[in-house]
Amino acid sequence: MKKSGAAEKKRVRRSSAVVQNGTRDPNSDTPPRKQAAKKDVFQLFAEKVRDHKDLESRWAVLQETRVEYFRGKDFVSFLRNHPEAKDILELDSNLETEDIANALLSKNLLVRCDRVVKTLRPGKKKLSTWPAHLEIFPEQVFSDNDAFFAWTFEKGRPLWQTLLSFFWPVLTLAICLFPVYPHRCKLLILYSCAGVLLLILSLLFVRAAIFGMIWILLGKRIWFFPNILAEEATLRELFRFWPKKDEEEKPKWTARLFYAVVAVLVILLLRHHAPDEAARARYQKRMSNIIDDVLEWSPRLALSGMMEKQPDVANATEANGTFSDGSKTNPDEIVPPDADAETGNVHENDQHQDNI
């Protein structure tokens, strides 16, 4: 029994050494094929964990490259709440969370990062929970104390992204062919785009108005749809509705009072200079004319406009002495338009001299 227990402890030490060093132990009894299979197992484990929705992650910039990263404490809590995720590791499923993370680091599936900005900004009580800019940490060892880890492998592209990449050139071509669409299609596209634009502007206005009222009345910074204007955000994060927790200091009452007075003055100024009914009618007529020009334009109208310019060319040809039927006139018989006026002036001068 003692010999078997000692052999079991020795085998566990060898397996942990393989995981931590990322190389094959020469004294290990595991053949090379199984060692390669273990690498594939860790790769599958990393892909499964990355695709899991319960592991909270964000996107950041690491050395001018966008990467997806998570926090060390979130990884620990994820494996504690989902122990079945370790089943894919087979023989290494009994490893501790720290050993699994170190194995992923040694196989270059993860890289430990650190925040670039390590000092508090003015008006903030603590550092950002999810920094937008990262840098590589010198020691590539797992830690759950304010440590960040970025995935180094490319995520598998889903089917909808492949279809979307094929759809973009088709959409570009459809936009270029807009002038030749039927009138009903033009109306549908125009009102759809106008509706989407109005929805976006209304959302931004209501969002800013709610923020201003809550900030003036309660002194709290609450932004609904907090990531709607973010440059680095996924589609799911972009349309997140609930606001983030306010971590900044409460503003002074003097600043809130000042901006309240400014808001009231701006509202009164806009109301005083609001356009009257006649101005709104003129603006509506002008916009209607612009929209009608866009909707009614077609290649036929463009060609008809070119045909309307041809009579001017025919008139110029007739002035040169050649008509459209091929007949010619004597240049001496052509009387300039101002000839009658000049002749009348000459006769008046002669009559005036005779009277003298």
Automatic annotation (TrEMBL):
Region (Disordered): 1-37, 317-356
Record InterPro entries: Sec62 (IPR004728)
Compartmental location: Endoplasmic reticulum membrane
Topology versus the membrane: Multi-pass membrane protein
GO biological process, one term: post-translational protein targeting to membrane, translocation
Transmembrane segments: 163-182, 188-218, 253-270
GO annotation, cellular component aspect: endoplasmic reticulum membrane
Regions of compositional bias (Polar residues) in chain numbering: 17-30, 317-329
Comp. bias (Basic and acidic residues): 345-356
Keywords per UniProt: Endoplasmic reticulum, Membrane, Protein transport, Translocation, Transmembrane, Transmembrane helix, Transport
Family, as annotated: Belongs to the SEC62 family.
PANTHER family, per database record: TRANSLOCATION PROTEIN SEC62 (PTHR12443:SF9)
The protein's name in its UniProt record: Translocation protein SEC62
UniProt organism field: Citrus clementina
Lineage: Eukaryota, Viridiplantae, Streptophyta, Embryophyta, Tracheophyta
